[in-house]
């Protein structure tokens, strides 16, 4: 079989993802859902193996590998060894494949969505640091087990220097697109993340209330957030969980997007906001630095400067427009269609010539 004929043939793809949007707020699950949906739309057969329940209306198949109790992610990885994957052309893992060292499909691709070692440096609690350290070791092992390993941002290669392939996370440009007519009448900041832990929603709310509201009392902070308190304080509106369409509308409605995360391997909301024509404010974490091109396409500020930076942007339309234009141009590099093209280009030559797939790059 030639490479060309392999490229034309629909592939049978098994994806591993502990997370899916149906059961988790983790960004990896959303990206897996988008990739699987886009691949299925191109005629490939895709099954996602997950601990989470099926996503309602999904165009791809679902294999339930759910469990309960402690150490679920590690037990999920161990149970993967019992599955018969011989009917698939491709195994594309987004985690939990580190026990799969024996060849089971023509090509085994692993995407590393960030570094657990990097996150361990910034997380609180001894137990959580230990857990992240163990997961970091699993990422190293997985990069050896897989035929081809991919990272979603260049800085992740700090922990996996032998991995050469960078394919960013993708954003659906048809869904996340600018619409100036939908912009809110009052100054609006949008946040997508969690109130606690590394996303630092609480930090943003406090900065907004201290620095923005005294000057712009009509301003509001909208938070797509599941764990915010019932009364987060003045000017803050908690949106909870949104559908895809509601999230896209929230981006179009806002004036500025802000996610002051302590760590992101990539940071899909940054790319979604930029594709929607929003200026982005972020703290200089690994993902934000990459997505904003080291601040050329977004504002990178330290946590204590968040409030003043938001106020400055909300009161300077010309600067908002410049940042939005730079972000929109940068977002084209994260178009989901191009990301899917890159993965199919990885899959098909190896399916055509499985022995060549063992050359790890």
Automatic annotation (TrEMBL):
Keyword field contains Glycosyltransferase: yes
InterPro entries linked to this entry: Glyco_trans_4-like_N, Glycosyltransferase_grp1
A Pfam family annotated for this UniProt entry: Glyco_transf_4
Domain Glycosyltransferase subfamily 4-like N-terminal: 27-175
Superkingdom of source: Bacteria
Entry annotated with the keyword Transferase: yes
Coiled-coil residue spans: none
Gene3D superfamilies for this protein: Glycogen Phosphorylase B (3.40.50.2000)
Gene Ontology terms, MF aspect: glycosyltransferase activity
Keywords: Glycosyltransferase, Transferase
Record protein name field: D-inositol 3-phosphate glycosyltransferase
Species annotation: Demequina muriae
């Amino acid at each position: 079989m030639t490479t060309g004929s392999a490229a034309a043939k629909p592939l049978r793809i098994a994806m591993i993802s502990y997370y899916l949007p149906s059961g988790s707020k983790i960004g990896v699950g959303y990206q897996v859902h988008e990739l699987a949906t886009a691949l299925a739309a191109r005629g490939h057969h895709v099954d996602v193996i997950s601990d989470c329940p099926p996503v309602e209306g999904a165009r791809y198949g679902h294999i339930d590998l759910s469990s309960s109790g402690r150490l679920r992610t590690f037990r999920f990885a161990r149970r993967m060894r019992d599955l018969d994957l011989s009917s698939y052309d491709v195994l594309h893992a987004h985690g939990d494949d580190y026990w799969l060292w024996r060849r089971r499909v023509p090509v085994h691709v692993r995407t590393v969505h960030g570094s657990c070692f990097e996150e361990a440096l910034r997380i609180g609690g001894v137990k959580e640091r230990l857990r992240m350290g163990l997961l970091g070791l699993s990422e190293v092992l997985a990069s050896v087990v897989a035929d081809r390993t991919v990272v979603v941002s260049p800085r992740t290669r700090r922990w996996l220097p032998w991995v050469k392939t960078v394919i960013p996370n993708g954003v659906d440009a048809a869904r996340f697109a600018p619409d100036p007519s939908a912009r809110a009448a009052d100054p609006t900041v949008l946040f997508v993340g969690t109130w606690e832990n590394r996303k630092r929603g609480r930090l943003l709310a406090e900065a907004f209330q201290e620095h923005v509201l005294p000057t712009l009392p009509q301003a509001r902070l909208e938070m797509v957030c599941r764990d915010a308190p019932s009364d987060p304080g003045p000017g803050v509106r908690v949106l909870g969980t949104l559908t895809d369409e509601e999230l896209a509308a929230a981006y179009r409605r806002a004036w500025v997007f802000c996610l002051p995360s302590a760590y992101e391997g990539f940071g899909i909301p940054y790319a979604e906001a930029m594709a929607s024509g929003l200026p982005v404010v972020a703290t200089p974490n690994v993902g934000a630095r990459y997505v904003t091109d080291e601040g050329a396409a977004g504002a990178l500020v330290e946590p204590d400067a968040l409030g003043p930076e938001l106020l400055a942007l909300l009161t300077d339309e010309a600067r908002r427009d410049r940042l939005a234009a730079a972000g929109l141009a940068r977002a084209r590099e994260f178009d989901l269609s191009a990301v899917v093209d890159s993965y199919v280009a990885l899959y098909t030559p190896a399916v055509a010539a499985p022995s060549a797939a063992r050359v790890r790059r």
